[in-house]
Write a structure and sequence with these properties.
Blueprint: H1 4-11, H2 47-55, H3 62-83, H4 92-103, H5 108-111, H6 135-154, H7 183-194, H8 201-220, H9 224-229, E1 235-239, E2 245-252, E3 258-262, H10 265-277, H11 305-324, H12 331-339, H13 342-355, H14 360-367, H15 383-393
Antiparallel strand pairs: 1-2, 2-3
Length: 398
């Protein structure tokens, strides 16, 4: 008897990877691009199992896993349902057709969820797309799928990578970052925070948590994933060559890379306020497991990325409403504010540091960016100089 997953997949031919059932003749067992000879490095003998073997490498990185599964899943479903051929038979020409499909997935009823809603993966309304992909999302899909095919070739499962023949035309980078808050809009966001009610203990906790989150995001330029996955035990003090003790925050960031970020005097004041409100000592102790941001009520558990994004979404919406109420001349500013997201604050931090003449090498190291080139590695600034300049030139100014 088929299990419930098989029944679900039979009823809804477009189904998530863990539910879909691919007919034997197109499951990849005999794909035309399968490798013959040599030593295979994985046990998989069909395309779904091969994809799962690749995805298993990312089980400990939830965001990466979700993004990689999404792109592999879309291609597998398109290949089998739209072309009627296994993923392991795709050619370079098929890839070119798929690129057009990503720009406009049709038929929409099969591929796009109703009204762009996000359904759970077990829901009958689940679809692989919420709508056509933007140019940047198409490029991301190409990068991820190229990684998949290259790995399957190295694993001895595929004979070649059909995406390797595509040489993306190098696009001229934008002259400047556009998704950030200029000085005036940044001031408006801080004003929204500062006008929050704080008469009751709960209101005060909301206010101090938001003030701490905005300070942490702006001063340190952290990614949301870095805020939710690191703890207050990452704060430490170190004496510089002049004998001054400086606070730092050690962050495990993108790609499992450690970096240290200057924790300025302003930031430590905000941390002390937030911690005292929660009943903690003003400064954390080494190895402390308290998350950098806590749910209201002081539960000692990390917030989710979605929860932090929602906090920023609300504060930007409130700022936009306040701007819109000032009259038609503020309509453009209000509209731009509604477009802002949590990641804008990271771009804002970097832009403001650069605009205030913080050495670009210090900005790079603060944000955890890669070096521009290998020859640039010797230009790494000293930590103490980076801290001093960040302290003097990059202030939140509450």
């Amino acid at each position: 008897m088929p299990d419930s997953n098989s029944i679900l997949a039979t009823a809804y031919s477009v189904a998530p990877l863990e539910f879909v059932v691919v007919p034997a003749h197109i499951d990849g067992s005999n794909g035309s691009n399968r490798a013959h000879g040599g030593t295979r490095q994985i046990r998989a003998d069909n395309d779904i199992d091969a994809i799962k073997a690749w995805l298993a490498r990312f089980l400990d990185k939830q965001t990466t896993f979700d993004n990689y599964r999404k792109e592999a899943e879309r291609l597998l479903l398109w290949s089998t349902l739209q072309l009627g051929k296994p993923l392991s038979s795709l050619t370079h020409e098929d890839w070119l057709v798929y690129q057009g499909f990503l720009r406009d997935p049709k038929p929409a009823s099969r591929w796009i969820s109703a009204e762009g809603r996000k359904y759970s993966r077990s829901h009958p309304g689940w679809r692989p797309f919420a709508g056509p992909l933007s140019a940047s999302s198409q490029r991301q899909a190409a990068v991820i799928l190229n990684t998949l095919f290259s790995w399957l070739v190295n694993a001895g499962y595929l004979a070649g990578n059909p995406l390797a023949l595509s040489r993306e035309r190098r696009r001229r980078p934008q002259a400047r970052v556009t998704r950030y808050l200029d000085d005036e809009m940044w001031h408006e966001v801080k004003m929204t925070v500062d006008t929050m009610p704080r008469e009751t203990p709960r209101q005060r906790e909301h206010y101090l948590r938001l003030r701490w989150l905005v300070s942490l995001s702006y001063v340190c330029g952290l990614r949301i994933s870095e805020i939710t996955s690191n703890s207050m035990g990452g704060f430490f003090r170190r004496r510089d060559r002049d004998g001054e003790e400086r606070w730092w925050l050690e962050v495990l960031g993108k790609g499992d890379k450690l970096r240290i970020v200057p924790a300025t005097d302003e930031l430590m004041v905000e941390l002390g306020r937030y911690r005292r409100e929660l009943g903690h000592s003003p400064y954390p102790v080494p190895g402390e497991s308290t998350p950098l941001l806590l749910p209201i009520g002081g539960q000692l558990r990390a917030m989710t990325r979605g929860g932090v994004h929602e906090i920023f979404k609300v504060i930007f919406a409130q700022t936009a409403d306040r701007l819109g109420q000032r009259g038609p001349e503020y309509a453009a500013a209000a509209a731009r504010m509604t477009q802002a997201s949590a990641h804008w604050l990271r771009h804002t931090a970097g832009s403001h540091m650069a605009n205030n003449d913080v050495d670009l090498r210090h900005v790079r190291d603060n944000l955890g960016h890669e070096s521009i080139s290998t020859t640039n590695t010797y230009l790494h600034s000293s930590d103490d100089a980076r801290h001093a300049e960040t302290e003097s030139k990059h202030k939140i100014g509450w």
